[in-house]
Structure formats: structure tokens, C-alpha cells
Amino acid sequence: MSCPSCGWPPGPPPERPLALTELPCRCGAVAFSYDGRPWIWVAREELCAADDPNRLVRAIAERAMAGESGQLDPESGVEVLPRKRQGEVLGYRAWSFEGHELASLNASRARWTLGPNKADCRREEYEGPRYLPPHTAPHPACACGLYAWHSPPSHWAEGSDVVPVVLGAVLLWGEAEVYDGGLRAEWAEPVVLSWLPDASEDHRERVMTVAGEFGVEAVPFELLFDRAQGYGEPIRDEEMPPKERPPDVRLGTPVFSPHALRPVRPL
């Protein structure tokens, strides 16, 4: 779709899976695309007439991410879907760097990819139980799954023995094994990355570069918790399982079909 204000043909949106793309027009209009879907425009005239142009732009961006569906915002008059998605829970975890890629901190050093990541069992790489038959992750008798804490561990602010380390928030869903301190889930997606308080300038730049490639925010550690709250909520205390035996838990059904995703190999 061309710009509604000047007719400028922007071309097709870039194919960046599960990423929001913003396209400012030379005339002052702005377009948004999510996951390579067609552009959704906010015209120059709409921006000039809006009481709060920034709110209107945010609403159009949310509309693009929602696939043009959701609740009607009474102030801006456009459809809005919050970034928070049903069935997901918020968690926190850490990675190491492998070049400019995020890698798990365990022995598998599994790489994380843009968008949703699906767990698979790699017990041969981290000395998990060999007596178990092949199974999907997470398994209650194994250590497989995508790990996260319910809240940022306090020792993060004091530095880490793993150098360099990347901290961040993730959304998790699907099958899960839940514990009092954290969980391991079937699916996870990074939403915010951050760096430790004593990180070097070079390390901060690497975190921001990787965050840009993932299409997520990069913030200092002291802002991580506040920014993460805009994407989801952790498991509530009343939903925590008994500490004696963590049961199988289903966090929620993904809003997309896993079969439509390209294969990934994270842990």
C-alpha cells in the first residue's frame, strides 16, 4: 500500500520474522509492518490533527502487531492489541555471547534465534539421565527445557563469573515444569536484553547490536525489571506448585502454529 498522504510506493515490507518494522515517509507519514505483513499507515494529516501524535503512532504499531484485530482504543479510534499475549508468562534468564549470538550457559552452548525458540532434549550434551527414552522437552524426570527465573536474581546486580554475560527477560509458554524459583518451558522468546552494571562500553554495544538483530529492547540492568513488565506477568504465587513435587503444567497455547515456524535448535 502506498503512502496515503503523498502516494510514495514504499515497496514490500522486509521479511523479518516476528519483528516490527517502522517506515517513516519523506512527507511525514509513518507506516508499520509486523512479521512482513502489508504496511499499515498513519497519514501526515492524521498526525497533525491528533491531540497526542505519539499515542496515535503507538496505536498504529500495536495494530500492525495484532494483524489489524483487537480492542478499539476510544481515544485514538484505532484497534489495539496489547503486547501481552494470553497463555504466556514472564521470566528472566542469562546467556553468554558466541560472537554476536546468544548462547545458553549450559554445556550444550545452544544458540538462540530471533522470535520463538523451541526446546529439545540434549541430555547427551549436559549429562542428563541416559535411562530415559527419547522424549519432548521439558520432561519431569530430565533437565531439559528452556530455563527462566520468576524474578531477576539479586546476585545479578553484583556481577557474574560468566564473562561476557547477557541478561534479559523472556516470554514462555507451552508445556512447563514449574518450581518455586523458576521454570523450564517448551517455548520461549526474548523480549528485553540488558547488561550488567560493570559492563564495558564494547560489551554494551554488542548487547545493543544483538538486541537490534532480535528486534527487542536493550536497556541497562537497573531498567530491566520495569521494561519487562510491559510484556507480561510472572506466574502468580497462588499458581505455584507444591515444592515437594513440581507437576506438569501447561502455560498456554501459542497464538501461532508451531508447525509454521522454521526449525530452531535452542535449549
Q: How would you explain this protein's 3D organization?
A:
By secondary structure, this protein is an alpha+beta fold. The chain has two domains: 20-80, no CATH class; 89-260, no CATH class. Helices cover 17% and strands 27% of the residues. The protein contains five helices and 13 strands. It has helices spanning 44-49, 53-65, 123-126, 201-214, 221-228, and strands at residues 20-24, 30-34, 40-42, 71-72, 79-80, 89-98, 101-103, 117-118, 146-149, 165-178, 182-195, 217-220, 248-250. The strands form three sheets. Strands 6, 7, 8, 9, 10, 11, 12 and 13 form an eight-stranded mixed sheet that branches. A three-stranded antiparallel sheet has the order 1-2-3. It starts with 19 loop residues before the first strand and ends in a 17-residue tail after the last strand.
